[in-house]
Design a protein that fits this description.
homodimer; SH3 type barrels; Fumarylacetoacetate hydrolase, domain 2; 8-stranded mixed sheet; 26 strands
């Protein structure tokens, strides 16, 4: 594992910096004129790569001028490599910095936007501890894991139009619910609104037929933090027999920086031991999950923050590459900008659970926060996901994925 | 119900013409230069509306120049009305036809393409006979309808990238399957590949919050025939607990002409009687389903066609407006080009079943075709959906939704 790549941008060299030269994550920012520009984070700055391309320092067929990363991603992995090499050379310690200073904009001065246009959003269910916890709650310990769970990375299609960038407020949804006490269903604001701590994989290279796991791994451009806001009471009533639908369609928040697969390369790790071997089309040929520390913070309106969960992406039983291979197995075309959620990531301990459903055991065991308790989200709560991979003397930070929950709107007449 | 609107384009006045002046369906065509152009069908011709806009006969902010109907749809229902009024005036019997002849291109000379870019695809489950048949097969007659079925239009998100236009060949998919006789799952070509006869609603007007049923009705631009190709054996193994995924992602075929809600207005009809009242947010304020006769034809490679099913869209328990209202209830943003499949449409009789799963009762009762029998699709079979609404002296035809099934590809190494 190599150490810190030093940059002439000093703030990038701090051991706790999220965005050292090793990282170079992809985002979209705007200044006062509200134009969306492609940028790359470095230390306390965003590199205006759209400007660098116009000035002739970079050449990627104008894809950096589009205000979104989709067209660049679709150029394929050679372009991804070339941009990383070019930026590393331009901003490395010792490189000529004179003309480049003007392309550095303080992060504090920019507004961040969706880094890519989500083509379609798929959400998986790949953490064994999460699936076991939820299965135990609703079907009992002996039937916790569905029969197919150890054989395929179970997933469902989500709703791309509901994906928003970190910092966007989220409205508590209305929906049809029917609890065990109800004689008939009711239409009401969700009383069990929840988070899901996930990693999102961004497909960069389009494809039109079945992919091997190795091909799929190469097609993934990078990763974001992902919070799949979930209305548990709506889900319980709607999900049989065709799966979650409106319970998952209010919003899914993502962090604003796509952390490239290249930056995460030193942190690849093997998945948990397989209880049964996978069929050949889903077998990996090396470690394809990542050692990424993850946490969830909850801050009530006007209160102080509590870290309510700590876990690690290495808990995932299936890698994003395996999920993408499975996704394409039937011939399903995949597009640049497809977003694959890992599924809620929970670890073996109680404090490593990635949803409030698990943390409070569906409300039966409310958990403590500074100045109170919680079972599910209350009005005005801000939920924040954070994550980083820890190298020798540097870290690859994801930044934050944050959202505040506002009260439900009054019902339409 | 008004009668035929006569046109100076004589082929549009035949009583059995699919595309009289009353219809004016929206499509996208190309000639030898392969440029995609917006067109409207009339009799045996396509009206080059992109050309009409360039020549100043129409003015819709250049949206007819985009080679796809999404931008026009997003202009909203006033524009939809204005285009229909303008075309009706230009092509009515007695109108000045001189300069317009050059904008009429024989349908026989064009190639048809996807009429719109599918933003996202949602598939519902709104035919009671279909849900009852499937439920009876897999859960027994006493548990046929899921408990939520009479209260919400159950739906799931499908895969937009897999939607193709009529005439596109479809490859039999590979997938993971496990039958009752299998000790362990296998990866194999689907042995139960099937059709689903559906109507697809095309959302035209975008929205960002909950819609009433009345608002939702007004936001629907039009309808297409839709065949949601389905791998029943893959579905059976994968669908618990998160719903259908790869079983539905190989392809969904649609007919090339969007039949406008305006053209179907005379054919609105009331849904089947409600067994239990719907909650207020899902109640309609008038008839919102349609009387549209539908059929499915099967033609083996080198053989002759058999009509294997006849049914009617009036069998749908939930209208597309109710589905769209439900879809938006949690605040889910809807986009121009969202496609909502009705779910398989089956009627009360055996010959009115809209899938081979139902027609052959999951293979237990193979049905007859000219020169053979079928349980599910065999190699080289061409499946064609057709539909029309019947007025006084005219019909609103949908054209065809056709696809031929090719053998599965060899497995990748």
């Amino acid at each position: 594992m190599s150490g810190l790549l030093r940059s002439w941008v000093e703030s990038a060299n701090a051991p706790d910096a999220d965005f050292p030269l090793n990282n170079l994550p992809y985002g979209v920012f705007s200044l006062d004129d509200e134009t969306h520009r492609c940028g790359v984070a470095l230390g306390a700055f965003v590199i205006d790569v759209a400007g660098l391309e116009r000035a002739g320092h970079l050449a990627f067929q104008g894809t950096l001028q589009t205000g979104v990363w989709n067209d660049f991603m679709a150029l394929g992995c050679d372009a991804w490599h070339d941009l990383r090499v070019a930026l590393t050379a331009l901003f490395a310690e010792g490189a000529e910095e004179g003309a480049l200073q003007s392309f550095l904009i303080p992060l504090a001065d920019v507004r961040l936007h969706m880094p890519f246009r989500v083509s379609e959003f798929t959400d998986f269910y790949a953490s064994r501890h999460h699936a076991t916890n939820v299965g135990t709650m609703f079907r009992g310990a002996e039937n916790a894991l569905p029969p197919n769970w150890l054989h395929i990375p179970i997933g469902y299609n989500g709703r791309a139009s509901s994906v928003v960038v970190s910092g966007t407020d989220v409205r508590r949804p209305w929906g049809q619910v029917k609890s065990l006490e109800d004689d008939a269903p009711r239409f009401a604001p969700s009383a069990k609104f929840d988070i899901e701590l996930e990693l999102g994989a961004v497909v960069g290279q389009p494809s039109d037929g079945p992919l091997t796991v190795t091909e799929a791994f190469a097609n993934i451009f990078g990763y974001v933090l992902l919070n799949d806001w979930s209305a548990r009471d709506i889900q319980a009533w709607e999900y049989q027999p065709l799966g979650p639908f409106q319970s998952k369609a209010t919003a899914t928040s993502i962090s604003p920086w796509i952390i490239s697969s290249a930056a995460l390369e030193p942190f690849r790790c093997a998945p948990p031991a397989r209880e049964v071997p996978l069929l050949p089309h889903l077998q990996d040929d090396g470690p394809m999950t990542y050692d990424i520390a993850l946490e969830v913070a909850l801050q009530p309106e006007g209160g102080t923050e509590t870290i309510i969960a700590n876990t690690n992406a290495s808990e995932l039983y299936y890698s994003a590459a395996q999920q993408l291979a499975h996704h394409s197995a039937c011939g399903c075309p995949m597009r640049a900008g497809d977003l694959l959620g890992s599924g809620t990531i929970s670890g073996p301990t109680k404090s490593a659970r990635g949803s409030m459903l698990e943390l409070s055991w569906n409300g039966a065991e409310p958990f403590s926060i500074n100045g109170g308790t919680r079972s599910f989200i209350e009005e005005g709560d801000t939920l924040t996901l954070r994550g980083h991979a820890k190298g020798q003397g540097y870290r690859i930070g994801f930044g934050e994925c944050r959202g505040k929950v506002l009260p439900a709107l009054p019902q339409k007449a």
